[in-house]
Amino acid sequence: MGAAIEKQQIPTIYDDENFDYKVVKPQLHGSHIVYHVQGVDKQGPWDGVRRFNHFYALYEGLQKRFPGLLIPKLPPKKAIGNKEVKFIYERKFYLERFLRKCARYDYLINSEEMKVFARPGTGDLEKMLDRLIKPSTSKLIESLHDITNVQERNYDFADKERFNNVVAEFTIYAKKVLLQMKGMKKNLAQFREVRLQNICNNRVLQTLFDKYEDLNMTNYLEGKQELLVLNNPESGKMKEQMDHMIDNQKNSFDHMYHWCKGEIYDIKAIVNAIA
Q1: Least confident among 8-17, 19-28, 118-127, 191-200
Q2: pLDDT digits (tens, 9 = 90+) for 212-225
Q3: At the N or C end, where does the chain have fewer CB atoms within 10 A?
Q4: Which pairs count as long-range contacts for 132-141, CB under 8 Å and 24+ apart, including other chains?
Q5: CATH of residue 28
Q6: Do residues 244 and 116 share a domain?
């Protein structure tokens, strides 16, 4: 289909382990990056190749069909640098996260938009989503009642005022916490780059040690490997342990960065729903 993109690992977000929904194998197809997507709904398993624009059209369609309800946040569009390997794998991660978040809500995962996204056939997916008939205002209200199981006539003026106050208080809180978390994300991005550089430095240092011993063996040790330290045949276990340690270094700031970014997405999704 296209050129495979070199794999990079992104840490998982712990509460989204729904393995029925996956976004994998990003590839360059023509001038676009495509992803292999799979999931399951009431009709059973489905899979296929999707572009980011297909996800975005799905997201916009869900927003129009379910105003006032939670729609998980999708990563934003990016015109420049959207074919860089690091960016592609982060986008893949958050597209998968989006699907797994949607899977928590029956009204989303079994919506008309999701059915088209899952099984578009041979048609133009974006146009098919755009052509879906949008529900009337009365249908929207009826759908909202069915999904939330809330009937406003059951609440008096005082109840509604109390709920409005709760929403207003959360909106103020969300502005404050989003500002704080954006600062945290910025710092974590810097921390993880420093940690990544340290990991790379350890690999470079190992290479330098090897070259140092090779030079010594050539010039002073008369080719006697038993006089080496790291590359001594009798101390192979030490070299093996060192290789294993370097190859399995973890960047713990990666987990914190993606947790923080995911929390920002979730808070923004709530803010969008109650706006």
Answers
A1: 8-17
A2: 877 776 677 667 77
A3: C
A4: 132/61, 132/65, 134/64, 134/65, 135/65, 140/65, 140/67
A5: 3.30.1520.10
A6: no
